[in-house]
């Protein structure tokens, strides 16, 4: 169980984006997080993945503090894939940075072998997003923060990406926090949904 | 692909990418210059051999660049001067780049270190460049070593600013933060993400520092604070030529000056071409 307790964080001393946010994500659970732009959804996602340190509050994984070294069990999948890859690396190297996905795994995610020799700018946003998602699924990862990962994609590519991610998450009992604006998508994907407003979480219908 | 097809593709690439052609041209020029400078020791004897029968001789077949007031071959002396400039420039640019890289890394350690490095950069940039250069060279007693140190110690601030900004940006880049979360060590991130991203800046910064270093070495020597008058440095040759230019002995200043200009331009062009060619995206455009 991933637990965030009383998380408070702001980018300025006198303002807080997150005000005492508490959240629980169980293994295998899909939790939807929505909220207006600038409400702090991505900030919360990055806190959970260890990219940002909260000003107050704590994070626990199965009752223990998250590891400071080694592979982080909570991986953040960002909205803009082009920012998440080294522009000087070829796709093969990018994909193998965290682990080495097999040819079958690459095929499941629709990653063509010909892409491996290309640079990130030679792939489309959708193609690159698939690479970033597969890279984030390293063995040892137990929770995923999917931060609007399909907002840049067309409907067909979106459906394909969520389908394959769902299968992978079910196989490995991964907990997934889906951050998004689309209520229909969140309703379809997630068993439980929450809304972030004024720095606080509310249950969503 | 067959050999002929490959050659055709290479020609097409060269034709369609003028910057690549420019870089290769500058590189060819440099290779020619370096080859000439390597062959220069055979001319060293001529550079010091005086022939009073051939004093102040205009360019002729025996002496392509003419002779100086002691009848020494100016071509040999110019080449010797350029060799010296090449070494001084390389050493000073390398040292300056290392200082810039070290200070940029220091600035990234924390806010206080950042402020301290920023103040240091602003202070050095605020001081008159040439005076600082003269003071350092003078304090170190002149000579090749003093010139290298003086040029290196006055040419790091601009590059430090560039590298510091780049490093701060890189540290916060999503892919670097993600790499950390993949469990990669600090050493791995420095080796695989930060240094390869900084290398083009260092390379270009160093190459663009090179012409400055050479010109300042010549300036210092010209003003009498640099290399000793016995060494055939370009600055020494230019300073000597001043006394005879008004008498019509133009070759004494023109050839060493042109040699210096050519060397500086070659490095400047090479630096600019590399700056555009190193990022994979721009290299393919």
SSE blueprint:
The complex is a heterodimer of chains A (205) and B (285).
Chain A: E1 2-9, E2 18-25, E3 30-35, H1 41-48, E4 56-61, E5 64-65, E6 74-77, H2 91-95, H3 103-108, H4 125-135, E7 143-147, H5 155-172, E8 175-179, H6 183-189, E9 192-197, E10 200-203
Parallel strand pairs in A: 3-8, 3-9, 6-7, 7-8
Antiparallel strand pairs in A: 1-2, 1-4, 4-5, 9-10
Chain B: H1 3-16, H2 18-38, H3 41-48, H4 74-107, H5 111-126, H6 129-139, H7 144-154, H8 157-171, H9 174-181, H10 186-223, H11 234-245, H12 251-277, H13 280-284
Helix pairs in contact in B: 1-2, 2-4, 2-12, 3-4, 4-5, 4-7, 4-8, 4-10, 4-12, 5-8, 6-7, 7-10, 8-10, 10-11, 10-12, 11-12
Characterization of the model:
The complex is a heterodimer of chains A (205) and B (285). Chain A is an alpha/beta fold and 205 residues long. Chain A has a single domain, classed as Rossmann fold (3-Layer(aba) Sandwich). Helices cover 27% and strands 26% of the residues of chain A. Chain A has six helices and ten strands. In chain A, α5 links the parallel β7 (143-147) and β8 (175-179). The longest helix of chain A has 18 residues, at 155-172. The model of chain A has no long low-confidence stretch (mean pLDDT 91). Chain B has one domain: MetI-like fold (Orthogonal Bundle), CATH 1.10.3720.10. The longest helix of chain B has 38 residues, at 186-223. The radius of gyration of chain B is 23 Å and the shape is flat. The mean pLDDT of chain B is 81. Chain A binds chain B through residues 49-51, 69-72, 75-76, 78, 80, 83-88, 97-98, 119, 121, 136, 138, and chain B through 173-175, 177-179, 181-184, 192-193, 196-197, 279-281, 284.
Q: Biggest β-sheet of chain A, characterized?
A: 6 strands, mixed
H/E topology pattern of chain A: EEEHEEEHHHEHEHEE
Low-confidence stretches of chain A: none
Estimated radius of gyration of chain B: 23 Å
What's the structural domain tally of chain B? 1
Approximate helicity band of chain B: over 70%
Structural class of chain B: mainly alpha
Domains of chain A, number: 1
Unreliable runs of chain B, pLDDT <50, ≥5 residues? none
- N-to-C CA distance of chain B: 23 Å
Per CATH, the architecture of chain B is: Orthogonal Bundle
């Amino acid at each position: 169980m991933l637990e965030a307790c009383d998380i408070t964080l702001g980018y300025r001393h006198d303002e807080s984006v997150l005000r005492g946010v508490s959240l629980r994500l169980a293994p295998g659970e899909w939790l939807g997080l929505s909220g207006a732009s600038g409400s702090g959804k991505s900030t919360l996602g990055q806190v959970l993945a260890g990219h940002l340190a909260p000003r107050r509050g704590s994070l626990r994984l199965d009752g223990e503090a998250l590891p400071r070294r080694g592979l982080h069990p909570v991986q953040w999948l960002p909205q803009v894939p082009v920012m998440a890859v080294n522009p000087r690396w070829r796709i093969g190297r990018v994909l193998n940075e965290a682990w080495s996905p097999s040819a079958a795994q690459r095929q499941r995610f629709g990653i063509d072998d010909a892409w491996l020799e290309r640079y990130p700018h030679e792939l489309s946003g959708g193609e690159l997003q698939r690479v970033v998602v597969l890279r984030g699924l390293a063995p040892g990862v137990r929770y995923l923060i999917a931060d609007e990962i399909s907002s840049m994609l067309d409907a067909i590519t979106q459906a394909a990406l969520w389908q394959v991610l769902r299968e992978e998450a079910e196989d490995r009992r991964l907990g997934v926090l889906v951050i998004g604006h689309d209520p229909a998508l969140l309703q379809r994907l997630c068993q439980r949904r929450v809304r972030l407003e004024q720095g606080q979480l509310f249950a969503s219908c | 692909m067959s050999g002929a097809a490959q050659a055709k593709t290479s020609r097409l690439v060269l034709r369609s990418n003028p910057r690549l052609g420019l870089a290769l041209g500058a590189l060819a020029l440099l290779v020619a210059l370096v080859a000439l400078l390597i062959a220069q020791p055979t001319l060293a004897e001529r550079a010091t051999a005086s022939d009073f029968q051939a004093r102040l001789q205009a360019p002729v077949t025996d002496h392509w660049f003419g002779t100086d007031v002691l009848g020494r071959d100016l071509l040999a002396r110019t080449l010797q001067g350029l060799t010296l400039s090449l070494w001084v420039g390389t050493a000073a640019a390398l040292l300056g780049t290392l200082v810039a890289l070290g200070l940029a890394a220091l600035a990234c350690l924390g806010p206080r270190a950042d402020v301290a490095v920023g103040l240091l950069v602003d202070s050095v940039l605020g001081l008159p460049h040439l005076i600082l250069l003269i003071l350092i060279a003078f304090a170190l007693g002149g000579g090749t070593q003093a010139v290298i140190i003086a040029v290196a110690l006055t040419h790091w601030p601009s590059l430090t600013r560039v590298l510091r900004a780049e490093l701060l940006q890189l540290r916060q880049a999503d892919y670097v933060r993600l790499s950390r979360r993949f469990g990669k060590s600090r050493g791995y991130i420095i080796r695989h993400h930060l240094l390869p991203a900084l290398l083009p800046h260092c390379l270009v910064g160093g190459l663009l520092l090179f012409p400055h270093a050479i010109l300042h070495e010549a300036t210092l020597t010209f003003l009498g604070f640099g290399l000793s008058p016995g060494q055939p440095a370009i600055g020494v040759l230019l300073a000597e030529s001043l006394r005879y230019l008004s008498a019509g002995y133009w070759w004494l200043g023109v050839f060493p000056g042109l040699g210096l200009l050519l060397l500086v331009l070659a490095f400047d062009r090479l630096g600019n071409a590399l700056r555009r060619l190193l990022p994979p995206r721009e290299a393919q455009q």
